[in-house]
Amino acid sequence: MSSRTRHALRTASLLAAFSIAPAVSAAAQQSQAAPPAVAPRQIAATAHAATLMVHAMSARGDTLGIGTGFVVSADGMFVTNYHVIEEAERLQVTLLDGGRYDQVQLIAADPASDLALMKVPAHDLRPLRIGSDLRMEVGDKVYVMGNPLGMSGTFSDGMVSGRRPLEGVSMLQISAPISPGSSGGPVMNEQGEVIGVATIMVMGGQNLNLAVPVRYLNPMMAQRAEPRPFSPAVLVSNPQAGLALVGEHEGPRRAPGRAAGARRDPAREVRSQLEMISPMLQLRGYVPAYPVQTGASGKDGGSHEFTLERGVSYMVTARCDAMCGNVDVSVFDTEGKLVQQDTDADDYPTVSLVARESGSYRVTVTIPQCRSAEACSYGVAVFRREPVERQARAGK
Predict the structure, then answer these.
(1) Are residues 173 and 289 in the same domain?
(2) Are residues 291 and 191 in the same domain?
(3) Is 83 an annotated catalytic residue?
(4) How many helices (H) and strands (E) does the chain have?
C-alpha cells in the first residue's frame, strides 16, 4: 500500500546495523533430500489461482490502498500483511482467477510480525501449501506472486540474500522484487511451498526486500480463533492475537526459556518479551517512545504517566510474567478520560491511539489472573510513529 510503504524508509538505517547471518544448513534440518523442484510456470499457475488482491477502503468506499493476499484453506482462509488492512474501514477482496468478496472476516492479526489471518465466504478454493523457512539457505531460489502498483498476478523470482536476526527475530532478506501493492504476497521455494510473506521494500536499496518467515504464521493458523466481521474496532480490540515469539532457528514459543531449576526473574521475563517484539515494530515504523516500565501488581493494578504529543500515533502494550494468565491495559487522556483499553482475556494487551492533545497520559495495568502467592510482574511499553503530516513531507 502506498500509504504504508513510507515506513520502509526507516528500515535502511536499522538494517545497516546488522550483518547477514547464514541459515542453518539443510543437512542439519532434514535427514533426506528435498523434494524435486517444480517448473516455474507450474508454480506461477498454482500461485495465481490462490492469490488475492486486497483493497483497503474508506467508509465512503474510496480505495485507500492495494495489497496482496493468498489462500491457505479451501474454505476461504487467507493471509495478508497487517499494514495492508490497519487503516481500512472495510475491505474488498478479489481472487485473481475470479470472484469478489465484500464480506471479510478477521481471524487473527499481529502487528509485531505484520501478519493478518482472514476469511472470505468461499469454498472449493485452491490453497497454497505451507512449507518451512528453516530449510532455506542463502542462495536458494525463491518466487513471489503479487500485485505491484495494481498490476495483478505479477510473478518474479530471486534468491534468499540473507537473514536479518533482530533480537531473536529472523527476517528473510530476498532479492525478488517487492513493490507497493505486493505486500502480503506469498514467497515460495522451488517446490511451490510458501516459506515467507512479502512485507517490506527498502526504499533506496537495490533488490533489498524483506519477508516474514512463515513460522510466524503457523501458530496463528493453529489457534483457529473464531472469525469476526472485519472492522477497525476488531483490530483495536485485540491486534496482537496470534503473536508467537520465535528464535532464528526455532519453532514458536511463548516466552524466552530458562534452564530447568533456574530461579525465576519475573521483571526480566517481561522485559525480554517486550524487547523481542520491539525490532519487528521498528520495521513497521514504530520506535520506542520511552524505556520499558515495570511493576508488580495484584488485581488493583499499577499506574504510569507518559507525555504524549498531539497528532502522533502511539501503540501501548503490556506483558506479564509466566505466573500471569491475563493482563489488561487502559489509557487515560490529560483530563483523566478513558481513551482506549484492552480488557480481553489474554496476556498481550495492546491499544493504538492518536493523541488529541499534548500532555501527560496515564496508563494503568491490571492483572485479573495471577497464579503467584505474591503479586505478578508486568512491563508496559509505549511506541510512537511520526505524525501524518511529517510522513507526508518525508515522502515528497
Answers:
(1) no
(2) no
(3) yes
(4) 8, 25
Give 43-96 pLDDT, tens digit per residue. Answer: 999 999 999 999 999 988 888 889 999 999 999 999 999 989 988 999 999 999
The predicted model scores a pTM of 0.59
Tell me the CATH number at 109: 2.40.10.120
The Cα-based distances of 355 to 82, 221, 316, 331, 349 in angstroms read 22, 34, 12, 11, 19
Name the catalytic one among 113, 183, 278, 297.
183
Q: Which domain holds residue 173?
A: 5-223
Interval 108-134: pLDDT, tens: 888 778 889 999 999 999 999 999 998
Is 183 considered catalytic here?
yes
Give CA–CA dist 285/47, Å, rounded: 30
95 and 216 part of one domain: yes
Point out the catalytic residue in the list 110, 113, 114, 347: 114
Q: Which of 161, 196, 223 is the last residue of a domain?
A: 223
The one catalytic residue among 7, 83, 133, 278: 83
